[in-house]
């Protein structure tokens, strides 16, 4: 649970009921609309929850160590070295007062123990690794002299300076045009295969999840509502929110009329109901959905990872789909 202090006293949870694993070498997509708690969840792994926010309950285990209860000095040894982070906006993540090369040299010296000359050479190598042409020249450039796509590649190189076991990419393509988005996703995929690191990809785009992820964790109103392999999520979603997201995603072949929208709005943390947080927007909700908190119901555990959904109807969607298909005939 991640909480923030309220003006009138006490703490307000903004993320709770979140739990998932990331295995070595796999990519897990953390997906949901803006405000669902994706970024707060990602930042909590690094101990970088903004402001006075803090992990109030639960554990964040990394290689057996609980990052949530770790002293800052010890956590700093993980942050940047064993866990890399790519922020949403590369232009704000990069320091405008320093060259790209100097921003890479500093963590290389700190985390890898290199002297200045070797760190400089490694910085050039990393810029080349992420597909930046003329890396020697870019080392001498300032962030404002780079395009958005080039700045994002430099930010990825910065995240790789510690040779991390886990890379957290927070909406890494949001601020980029479509062509550059595809290039960055291809780059992340190839880097992961080459370096063997695990990755958490934070995104609101289901298309990105389908393209690059092995498993998906769907969040809504501060909770995980579904988890499964990408194939399971896209072919047999178990939570009505996930199903609604998929229906509102554009198909490759355009269809007539507007895309289906999800009626209603996401409740604010202070307005979270006692029961299912999606119930007020769900066409299939019953009184039982609102009566009490709904736990994650595990279904068909598989080698690919847990298959679970926070829905009391998780076992009945096949029948619902069958009835809908029969009615359409």
UniProtKB/TrEMBL annotation:
Entry-linked PANTHER family: DIPEPTIDE TRANSPORT ATP-BINDING PROTEIN DPPD, OLIGOPEPTIDE TRANSPORT ATP-BINDING PROTEIN APPD
Domain ABC transporter per the UniProt entry, residue ranges: 2-246
Keyword field: ATP-binding, Cell membrane, Membrane, Nucleotide-binding, Transport
Location(s), subcellular: Cell membrane
GO annotation (BP), single: peptide transport
Species, as recorded: Streptomyces himastatinicus ATCC 53653
Topology term for the membrane: Peripheral membrane protein
Protein name: Peptide ABC transporter, ATP-binding protein
Classification via InterPro entries: AAA+_ATPase, ABC_Ni/Peptide_Import, ABC_transporter-like_ATP-bd, ABC_transporter-like_CS, Oligopep_ABC_C, P-loop_NTPase
């Amino acid at each position: 649970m991640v909480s923030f202090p309220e003006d009138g006293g006490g703490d307000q949870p903004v993320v709770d009921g979140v739990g998932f694993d990331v295995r070595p070498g796999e990519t897990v997509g953390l997906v949901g609309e803006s405000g669902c708690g994706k970024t707060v969840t990602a930042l909590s792994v690094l101990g970088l929850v903004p402001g006075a926010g803090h992990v109030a309950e639960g554990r964040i285990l990394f290689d057996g160590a609980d990052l949530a209860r770790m002293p800052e000095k010890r956590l700093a040894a993980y942050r940047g070295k064993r866990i890399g982070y790519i922020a949403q906006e590369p232009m704000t993540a990069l320091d405008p007062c320093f060259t790209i090369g100097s921003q890479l040299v500093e963590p290389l010296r700190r985390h890898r123990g290199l002297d200045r000359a070797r760190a400089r050479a490694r910085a050039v190598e990393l810029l080349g690794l992420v597909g930046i042409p003329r890396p020697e020249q870019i080392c001498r450039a300032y962030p404002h002299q780079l395009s958005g796509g080039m700045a994002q590649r430099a930010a990825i190189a910065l995240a790789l300076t510690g040779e991390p076991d886990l890379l957290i990419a927070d909406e890494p393509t949001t601020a980029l045009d479509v062509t550059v988005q595809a290039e960055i996703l291809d780059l992340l995929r190839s880097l992961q295969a080459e370096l063997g690191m695990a990755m958490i990809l934070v995104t609101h785009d289901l298309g990105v999840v389908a393209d690059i992820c092995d498993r998906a964790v769907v969040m809504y109103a501060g909770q995980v509502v579904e988890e499964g392999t990408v194939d399971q999520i896209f072919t047999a979603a178990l939570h009505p929110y996930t199903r609604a997201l998929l229906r509102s995603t554009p198909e490759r072949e355009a269809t007539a009329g507007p895309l289906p929208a999800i009626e209603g709005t996401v409740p604010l943390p202070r307005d979270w109901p006692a029961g299912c947080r999606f119930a007020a927007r769900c066409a299939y909700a019953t009184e039982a959905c609102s009566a009490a908190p709904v736990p994650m119901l595990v279904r068909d555990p598989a080698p690919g990872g847990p298959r679970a959904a926070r829905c009391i109807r998780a076992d009945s969607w096949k029948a619902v789909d069958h009835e809908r298909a029969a009615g359409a005939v």
